[in-house]
């Protein structure tokens, strides 16, 4: 057995098939935009950054972005300060593109979301027991930083990541911290960003504060419970989107097999 065959797959994503990689990346982008991982008016990372993030070639990324531009999800601005900017959160093609991105691996994604909840509960519980004064300072700064990020999407994403990296670091177990990052990437379709909306952000601000308080108060069971509550935000948002595209799927429209006259 080769290393590739023996290595366990942690999450729902699978390697892209080369001949359809551009289309699949475009589907992932539209899904990420629908989830608020990227918001209208936000500039996307560069082609090179996206290539590294998604582990595909720059050519594949460019193909995906060309598709998105043709469908009206992004515009490409030329020049020194140009880039690719999100212009639409949902469009006529969204139902089918999101369906292609989510449905084939949905059952495995549900397993991964459950796995994440269990891991993050253990991280919070362990951080509550093991954190040092230095860890406490970092966690407090991170929580304050997320609140200060306000409505800027990219700043909010980076600040949210720092909150959870600070908590994971407080376990003093490098494998747990690495596992948290890998699962985050997996449930975010490779984009390393949680779902976002003003409502989700408001809930996250409150949950971060309560989670940090429980950890720093060494209340391990409470910290685990609050971690479960907090990470359900991502699961809820994904399930809501999945339900939306399921209900819009023409293949699921059923008719009454025994219609009656009125």
Automatic annotation (TrEMBL):
Compositional bias of kind Basic and acidic residues: 243-254
Region annotation (Disordered) ranges: 243-262
GO molecular function per UniProt: DNA binding; DNA-binding transcription factor activity
Every HTH gntR-type domain range: 19-89
UniProt keywords, alphabetically: DNA-binding, Transcription, Transcription regulation
Entry keyword annotation includes Transcription regulation: yes
Database matches in Pfam families: FCD, GntR
InterPro entries in the record: GntR_C, TF_FadR/GntR_C, Tscrpt_reg_HTH_GntR, WH-like_DNA-bd_sf, WH_DNA-bd_sf
Source superkingdom: Bacteria
Xref: PANTHER family: GLUCONATE OPERON TRANSCRIPTIONAL REPRESSOR, TRANSCRIPTIONAL REGULATOR, GNTR FAMILY
Protein name (Swiss-Prot/TrEMBL): FadR family transcriptional regulator
Taxonomic lineage of the native organism: Bacteria, Bacillati, Actinomycetota, Actinomycetes, Micrococcales
């Amino acid at each position: 057995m080769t290393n590739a065959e023996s290595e366990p797959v942690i999450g729902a994503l699978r390697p892209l098939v080369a001949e359809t990689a551009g289309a699949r990346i475009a589907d992932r982008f539209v899904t990420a935009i629908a989830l608020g991982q990227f918001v209208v008016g936000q500039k996307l990372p560069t082609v090179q950054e996206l290539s590294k993030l998604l582990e595909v070639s720059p050519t594949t990324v460019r193909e995906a972005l060309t598709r998105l531009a043709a469908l009206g999800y992004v515009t490409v601005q030329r020049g020194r300060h140009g880039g690719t900017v999100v212009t639409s959160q949902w469009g006529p093609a969204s139902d089918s593109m999101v369906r292609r991105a989510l449905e084939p691996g949905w059952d495995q994604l549900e397993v991964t979301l459950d796995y994440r909840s269990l891991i993050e509960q253990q991280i919070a519980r362990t951080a509550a027991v093991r954190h040092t004064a230095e860890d406490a300072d970092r966690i407090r700064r991170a929580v304050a930083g997320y609140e200060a990020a306000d409505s800027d999407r990219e700043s909010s994403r980076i600040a949210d990541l720092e909150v959870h990296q600070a908590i994971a670091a407080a376990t003093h177990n490098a494998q747990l911290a690495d596992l948290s990052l890998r699962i985050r990437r997996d449930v975010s379709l490779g984009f390393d960003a949680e779902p976002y909306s003003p409502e989700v952000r408001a809930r996250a601000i409150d949950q971060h504060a309560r989670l940090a308080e429980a950890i720093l108060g060494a209340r391990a069971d409470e910290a685990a419970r609050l971690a479960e509550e907090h990470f359900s935000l991502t699961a809820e948002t994904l399930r809501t989107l999945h339900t939306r595209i399921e209900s819009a799927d023409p293949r699921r429209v059923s008719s009454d097999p025994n219609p009656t006259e009125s």
